[in-house]
Design goal:
215 residues; single chain; two-stranded antiparallel ribbon
Length: 215
């Protein structure tokens, strides 16, 4: 299955939209966006996958016993299933990726600094700007059937979450959020079941410490 996450990465830093996400996991009147991420150790359809009734699945703590911690210093670390392995799509550039054994479910992570983003005079560097740019790219992608932008918690931060459904039936959740001086982009594409299962692990484990989930 061709990796979809980075199809728009080449134009991510040049695209722009001004819509913003609404509060909670409610569909926004003017959709907002969200960028992607990468690590060493990586949607909307008619109905985007869900985990709990809450705006985020971080309320219920999960066990990381059967997971492995993967990532890179520049883009952060996250926990994935033990049987996942390093994956690199030839079109992804420097983005960090990890995948399930069948290479259908893919984690992608990236990070941006102010110096790496070309800004216009009236633009302010931050998660909302990058999320909106990416959302605009996905919205105009012919392989996207449905897209929804919402706000959600990720790694203890307010994040912009894009729920994407592709024309071939594949799903993607993509979170864009800021920690310190960097904006991080974490994306998971695959089946609805995989996204539902791994979402709380991603939300609670992402961090900048290579050894400790959530730190």
């Amino acid at each position: 299955m061709k990796n979809k996450i980075l199809l728009t990465s080449v134009t991510l830093l040049s695209a722009l939209m001004v819509a913003a996400c609404g509060n909670g996991e409610k569909k926004t009147a003017e959709p907002a966006a969200a960028p992607t991420t990468e690590v060493t150790t990586a949607a909307p359809t008619t109905t985007a996958p869900t985990t709990t009734a809450s705006a985020s699945s971080t309320e219920k703590k999960v066990s990381f016993e059967d997971t492995q911690r993967v990532g890179r210093e520049e883009s952060g670390y996250i926990n994935v299933p033990k049987d996942w392995a390093t994956y690199q799509d030839k079109n992804t550039g420097s983005q960090f990726q990890f995948s399930s054994p069948d290479k259908y479910n893919i984690l992608s992570m990236n990070a941006y600094t102010k110096d790496s983003v070309k800004l216009k005079d009236d633009e302010k560097f931050g998660a909302e700007l990058l999320a909106n740019r990416l959302y605009n790219n996905w919205e105009n992608n012919k392989e996207v059937k449905q897209i929804q932008g919402v706000k959600a918690k990720f790694a203890g931060e307010q994040a912009f979450l894009m729920k994407v459904v592709f024309t071939d039936g594949k799903y993607m959740y993509e979170w864009v959020f800021q920690k310190g001086e960097k904006v991080y982009d974490v994306a998971l594409e695959g089946t609805a079941d995989t996204i539902n299962t791994l979402r709380p692990f991603f939300e609670q484990s992402f961090g900048l410490d290579p050894n400790t989930p959530g730190k």
